[in-house]
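Q:
My hope is that you can spare some time for a protein that puzzles me. I hope you can help me see how the letters and the tokens relate. Thank you; the sequence and its tokens follow:
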Amino acid sequence: MNDFNHPAGGSTSFGTTRQIGLDVTRAIALIGVVVMNFHGTLHNWLNDWSIGTDFWHRVFNVYTGALSTRFAATFVLVAGIGTALFSRKVFENHQDIAKHRMRLLRRGAVLLFGGYLLNHAWPGTILFYYGAYFMLSAIFIMWKSRSIILIALATALSGTAIATWEASRQKSGHSTSWLHPRSIDSFTDLILRIFVDYTHPVFPWLAFFCIGIVMGRNLEMVKTKRRAILMLCFALIVLCYSVSAILDHFDLRSNEIAYWLTSMHPYNRGLLYTVSTAAIAVLVFVVISQLAEKYQHQKIVVHLQRSGQLTLSLYLLHVLVFYIFVDWSHLISSSGLDTALLFATGFWVFAITIASWWQHHFGQGPVERLYRAIGG
């Protein structure tokens, strides 16, 4: 390797061998995030609230569709896996623990602060919440896996409990608008935004991150038990959707607690939603990893592997591209699903090409390099 010939599958910044499945899954998850972001933001930006009711519009509906938040959840799961690999040496050797915790805190603080600034231009950005996940992981990253699974379960249940309590308060005539501050003007607003409110709050989204950490610690076992894991994930997905369909068919959601526990609406934070989404994210990671390893020498896989190492740069780039084509030049003025899909496809043909070229010649992406220089 020289300065202009970086391998697609070299070493990470902390010395471990890159996992092809991790990079490829990260790239594909970001493709989905871009599609959903472009689709939803076009509607908001162009003040067009008419969302179609045909099959594809229902699938791609950013608020209630089958794909809503699933790509982002996969992205969070992969971040948890990466954090486990990043922490592996410290976890196994029990050395430099305090130093490693501070490193996670710094990296999280950079994402939290950067995400807060970006939120003014790109409302609901996941980077803000990413920062919170990293900062919280500094507390429990050395804990045993069973304890981290308990954290995942606790955050999932907490999300459902808070949503149930809020619905009960509203039913009793009490205002709960204070739970959803329009902007962060106080420390209380900041805590509510991180843990309870908006797009990817800790309750329940930290659950996906925690599951990723446990998977990252046991990647070899995940590889050897792929079939069993896939069957379990598939069974959980079928079970969650079947229970939801049966409850709807027989109108059994009149009980408030039953409704919020079993809701599949992404923004209701229901337990069935969290379980099914976690199962989907794990299934997607296992399938993509297996395919990536099998076809690792195919050009498209290599390009995805390279671009998966620059997802932070590409995430910010997709915001800039949106502004250039929609807000500044007004070259795109339609908010239809076909426009969003074409726009996202065009972006990714360009993005994967430029990212693959950049990684091959320069290694780390420009934003990744800055992020690690500041965050450690």
In short: The mean pLDDT is 90.
